[in-house]
Amino acid sequence: TQLLEQSPQFLSIQEGENLTVYCNSSSVFSSLQWYRQEPGEGPVLLVTVVTGGEVKKLKRLTFQFGDARKDSSLHITAAQTGDTGLYLCAGADAGGTSYGKLTFGQGTILTVHP
Amino acid sequence: KAGVTQTPRYLIKTRGQQVTLSCSPISGHRSVSWYQQTPGQGLQFLFEYFSETQRNKGNFPGRFSGRQFSNSRSEMNVSTLELGDSALYLCASSLVGTGGYEQFFGPGTRLTVL
User: Fold this and answer.
1) Which residues of B touch A105 (CB under 8 A)?
2) For position A45, what pLDDT does the model report?
3) Is B29 helix (H, G, I), strand (E, B) or coil?
4) Predicted confidence (pLDDT) per residue in B15-25, tens digit
5) What end-to-end distance do the CA atoms of chain B give, in Å?
């Protein structure tokens, strides 16, 4: 059974601060996706990383996929109140037979205070 | 391009009843996955359908079932509802559901079992 350990579970910061969320596993993933979810809504895809060592930037958000494709991080620079939400990492099985199944981390609830 | 749609958005049922949830994927997407999201367990994979065939199933009892139609629309059914079935049920679609695929989620159906 694949597991994704996401940390921290909760993050409460002031506007303007930087933060990093981590996603770790002992399993290899063919890709890893980061989502943001608002209360009562479905997760919205932020980015997909596929290649080991890959770094992707989305405005103030920087995503990195580990060289061995087992871990990933999300770094937010100068957080804004609009960044508040639940952040989820999810991995697609590299085995090739786990069709349509993403393994999700437990999520990080980020609160950015003005 | 329209996103993933789910109906209904909210449902209230009583124990012992059954319920059917519907999902329409993004146009052109042939893989539909279903997830259950609860505060305690996070997002857990239920099953995946591709070309009207169930290719993958998570660890849920047989009371949870689904199907996919020729137009890729999917339904899931939960029979003999239990209090613990109260959750946000999410549907996600992707092009083929294998490899480094991306999944796009609908807004979810909030099921409350009384």
Assistant:
1) 42
2) 95
3) coil
4) 999 999 999 99
5) 37
And the tokens for A28?
A: 């290899």
Taking CA–CA distances from A51, the nearest residue in chain B reads B100
Pick among B44, B54, B105, B112 to test the A interface (most A CBs inside 10 A): B105
CB pair distance less than 8 Å for B55 and A99: yes
Measured CA distances, A32 to A4, A73, B37, B99 (Å): 10, 10, 19, 11
Q: What token pair was written down for B112?
A: 């409350």
User: What is the CA A74 to chain-centroid distance, rounded?
Assistant: 6
Instruction: Name every chain A residue with its beta carbon within 8 A of the beta carbon of B88.
Output: 40
